[in-house]
Amino acid sequence: MNKYIFIGSYTEYSADSIKHNDGHGICVYRMDGKTFSPVCEAADIINPGFLAISPDNTRLYAGGEADSYGIVAAYEIDPSNAELRLMNTVETPGSGLCHVAVNDRTLFAAYYSSGDAASFRIAADGSVEKYVSMFRNIGKSINPVRQDHAYTHSVTPDPTGKFAISADLGMDKLTVYRVNRETSEMTEVSSNFVRAGEGPRHLTFHPNGKYAYLSTEMGCCVVVFDWDAEKGVLTEKQIIETLRPTKIENTGADLHITKSGRFLYMTNRGDNEIVCLDVAADGTLSFGYRKDCGGNWPRNFAFDSDEKFLAIANQFSGDVTFFDFDAESGVIGNPFGKIDLPQVSFVTVRDF
After folding, report:
1. Helix, strand, coil share of the chain (percent; to 5)
2. Residue 46 DSSP one-character state
3. Are strands 319-326 and 331-340 parallel, antiparallel or unpaired?
4. What's the predicted TM-score (pTM) here?
């Protein structure tokens, strides 16, 4: 089998009042040893900044981050070479679609600008049907600039497939939805507020399904929860800071946990580091070490299926940097390769 790198990037991005139009959209590379060969590019929708691949590796779903509408795209993945074939696109209400996730026959989407959480039914052929649920969060928190209204940053399915959890930066709120696996409709079950001003971003679950971990964008912390997979209830048990003492402004970004459940990693943009946290038997965290991310603005990262390396998407330096990784010790090793692409925002690795 070969390893393939799937990368999402912004085709239009504004920073410091300058509009950049140099992103390539979705890019696929084949990994040969420690070198990379381009396979294909797809720019069928604007700003495919977040991607999700079906559990069987046959379909790729992309969320397009537009100012005034939402759009998702479905692609068929050629199992022989990982080339992409567009199946369909679906436009939706809401704006600033920033996150997608897939589970069974349901696609989940988060709309940052409009504060929406949505679910879509996936057809038998893998294409996306019209959305079946859309919940708009209403509210704000203590930061008058960044939390003046709801900003939904992610919607993540739980390991059982029975629930999905939205993280709202603007409200400092998590909302748990029950998911009807026959129709993909969501109904609200419970909710939690985290410490004011933290700005929830991404959520991941421990491999044992008992604990959930939330990265906060504004606070650069990880919040640890017990997870009741029968009732769909989160109970906060710890919050741990990840920043070094610094005057540099930081925003927390992505987080992932290893298959063993022993190490959790989070990236911070500003210090441009990835932080390793040791995971105890009860799911709580302690600081391990920090590592330079190899570029500027580490928005997203991923391990390969064997956990022999990790890839970090550095948005502002325009690269995906690869590091050796030892899963037994949790140590991130030296960088060994780089793919240069403007405005990268997402990376994942799959075997074909």
Report:
1. 0, 60, 40
2. S
3. antiparallel
4. 0.97
